[in-house]
Write a structure and sequence with these properties.
With 257 residues, the protein is an alpha/beta fold. The protein has ten helices and twelve strands. The chain has a six-stranded mixed β-sheet, with helices on both faces. It has a four-stranded antiparallel β-sheet with strand order 2-1-4-5, covered by helices on one side. A two-stranded antiparallel sheet has the order 11-12. Helix 6 runs parallel beside helix 7. The protein starts with a strand and ends with a strand.
């Protein structure tokens, strides 16, 4: 049976340097899938190939049985909501303006009443209505990240893509953001794909994990099945053990000497 989001045999190179080789996986609506792997494994590149920012040499991306590579930018913006690692958000924008900018695929040259109402509902859902007219550069890291997720949600996407959404956040905000992504995926039946570095966040929140190594998919499936000591060693080059803390599974890297 076909799944909502299917990535099939993606190959991508920068010049002669191969970044992705035959990379593929699938995600159902309502699932939170995390892309894992060491720096340079191809995670961010794969995310950009999915939403069309990069064009793979071979392979394709399918959403609900429809190949998306031939869609227009506007059509893709109604399928994929994207939160990049480098936000490029100008400090002078307010939270409301930032979220409202996600309505561009729908509103044309000027915001309509329904666009403003949509942005207001998103801010309420994110618990940020009291920050609507605060400038983005006055927010904490966690608040800023929630606003950027709100901007992506304003596109009314069917797939939400995030490149390291927890980077530069402290422990509390990491867990708040991952919890929010899990809730949004379930509530709105979104296929959520996020690049994540923290393996324990993957174990705590993800429905599915895709572990990359050298541009290839080393393993995919439930995080607890994917993250074995042998695969962690192969992907990250560090010995690790899988322990338990109550009902939680945790990755415990061993000191390298």
């Amino acid at each position: 049976m076909a799944r909502g989001l299917e990535i099939k045999g993606i190959h991508f190179s920068y010049g002669k340097r191969k970044i992705l080789e035959d990379a593929g996986f699938a995600v159902d609506p309502g699932e939170l899938c995390v892309l894992l792997g060491a720096n340079g494994a191809g995670k961010s590149t794969l995310l950009k190939c999915i939403n069309g920012l990069l064009t793979p040499a071979r392979g394709n991306v399918v959403w609900n049985g429809r190949e998306t590579d031939r869609l227009s930018v506007k059509e893709k913006a109604k399928i994929y909501g994207y939160v990049p690692q480098e936000t490029g958000v100008r400090g002078g924008l307010t939270v409301m303006e930032t979220v409202l900018s996600g309505r561009l695929p729908y509103m044309g040259l000027a915001a309509r009443r329904q666009d403003v109402e949509k942005a207001e509902k998103i801010l309420i859902r994110l618990g940020m209505e009291h920050l609507a007219f605060c400038r983005m550069d006055t927010l904490s890291g966690g608040e800023r990240q929630r606003a950027l997720i709100g901007r992506a949600m304003a596109q009314e996407p069917e797939v939400l893509l995030l490149d390291e959404p927890t980077s530069s956040l402290d422990l509390r905000f990491q867990y708040e953001v991952m919890g929010l992504l899990k809730e949004l995926g379930t509530e709105q039946s979104l296929a959520v794909v996020a690049v994540v570095h923290d393996l324990n966040l993957a174990l705590d929140f993800a429905d599915q994990a895709v572990l990359l190594s050298g541009g290839r998919v080393l393993a995919e499936g439930r995080p607890e099945a994917v993250l074995t000591p042998e695969r962690i060693q192969a992907s990250y080059g560090i010995p690790a053990e899988i322990g338990r803390f109550g009902d939680r599974r945790v990755v415990l890297p061993r000191m390298c000497r």
